[in-house]
Amino acid sequence: MIEPPAPDELVLPVPDAERPIERTARPSPEEARAFKEAWQSRPAFEAPTETVGAELPAPVYTSWEDYLARTTERKRLEWCRVKAKTANRERRMSGRPERSITPQEVWQVAETAQGRCTYCGSLALEGRPTGHDGRPMPWAMVGRRIGSLDHRLAIVDGGTNDWENLAWACLWCNVWTAETDRQPGATDHGALQDCPSDEPKREHPLKREVTYAWNLRDVMRSKGMYVTTDLGPHLADRGFDLSEGQVRRLVSQAPERLSLTLLAALCDIFRCTPADLITIESPSSPPARPLTWRKWST
Question: Which pLDDT score, from 0 to 100, does residue 220 have?
Fold first, then answer.
């Protein structure tokens, strides 16, 4: 008969809150700078293709209302807790984000989007498929049904966990950001839209077409700066070490993703306001929907 261990020999499990955090060695500033330059100039990822003749599984949820009716609040917050933990984790090249987000904030992002991908409009409320043994399975066929929390400006590119930088996205658009079909109305890779794919997508009666113009080049000229690369040292003085190619693209191309800290740095350099750098236009658009506020209840 095996005798139980003595009290002094008992090894109790360490709670997660008291368990020491294993931190990976941070790279040197030179290594981090080289990685970021290589990341900026990387070629576009090649997305996987759908298997010809493969039968797509039926969608788990058919609408936002169906998702709310078939899930509990506890299950939804647990799902959001996993996504918040991923967003708050420490990264080798950029460290831990300065601001941590909560599961309630992740839920607010999903609720604001009504569970639909910000980029292609697919209903993205499912989790990654797993086998009977719990191991992950290929998800490309249903990539537009899987919900995820996306950073409009990636953390490695200087993005943050601020509300303005968060978006709800299907896993396909979150991973394959360079896809040419990353647009509203995509019906591939298991997408589930408001209407069948053989019918034209109906426009919302209150949808406003909002565009913007990037006026950085004009602001530079008004301040007597005519050479694009002259902006680099001013950005470096404010903590933005960008290559000449990145500075050139920042001036010549309208950025789709721009951190607030970089926008504030540009305003400080040229002694201007965000309205001088960005002109918002909404031609022939219907009136905007009135703002409504709802207090989050716990």
Answer: 92
The answer to whether residues 195 and 202 touch, using CB atoms and an 8 Å cutoff, is: yes
Q: Which domain holds residue 122?
A: 57-199
DSSP-assigned beta bridge partners for residue 148: 169
On whether both 190 and 68 belong to a single domain, the answer is: yes
What average pLDDT does the structure give for the chain? 77
**Which is more confident, 83 or 207?**
83
CA distance 7 to 94: 44
165, 199, 233 - which closes a domain: 199
CATH of the domain at 262: 1.10.260
Q: How many domains does the chain have?
A: 2
State the pLDDT at residue 283.
61
Predicted pLDDT of residue 277: 92
